């Protein structure tokens, strides 16, 4: 009985947060410049799923072609970032760690800036130029960090390697910004601040092949992640192949982050604050914490995007501004608490 004692909490949290996420997504789709009711949202979803004729083609176009892709992408990106955040915090045993600690965001930002500045590959990639470049440079950043950290993948060395790569890529990004034209500079800055505006269904398909296997793999390794909290030496004594498991978890979390950043820009603090809050609510057992944090990450980013596009209507804020306004005070509060505790 004790072996499966986590299962009731898992079922309760999974079902509750899934229901809440569906309701919030429905509300987010219905909110906007065009007045739409909940009935319109679910009726349109029903007609698309069953293949029946839409009641109103204009309403269907707004809901299905504009709002649904944006809301679903916000949820998917939030899930990926929060899931990666749980892994980094658990693996590095640092509650202030987030997906950007290994320099992935700096790599993705530099990739996007190169695509915007040079236009390289635009003839073959078209609208995919920026996401592809962002993903490639994010992956390069990951492998540079892993190579710099060496075979041992020591926790402190990993963090320091991430700081070095972030600084290097950040300097290259600053150089590109410095020699960009006014139009290029505006595009680069908007991408760096993060946004899911004007995204379409195919952007969702970029993230899903990395997010679904990544989250599944991470959850299947939740027990080993629990043992990491005892320390790597203790985990090894309990039969965990520390280096191999750590490498698999790092790769999964970083590739999920890279895919999310490639389509949404650099949205900060989701992977920092959501795992931390959910750990306090549902406890440290990663078998419950991972699905709870993933669903809460989707909830948070759907809410942040809804605020970003409605609070100054008809103008729209980058979603990264909203998450930073929430995340920065939270980060400062956590730092203060740690200092007081020490």
From TrEMBL:
GO terms for biological process: siderophore-iron import into cell. It holds the Pfam family FecCD. Keywords: Cell membrane, Membrane, Transmembrane, Transmembrane helix, Transport. The chain crosses the membrane at residues 71-88, 100-124, 130-150, 157-182, 202-222, 248-274, 286-304, 316-335. One of its GO terms (cellular component) is plasma membrane. Its main location: membrane. It is a multi-pass membrane protein. One of its GO terms (molecular function) is transmembrane transporter activity. It is found in: Cell membrane. Belongs to the binding-protein-dependent transport system permease family. FecCD subfamily. This is Iron complex transport system permease protein.
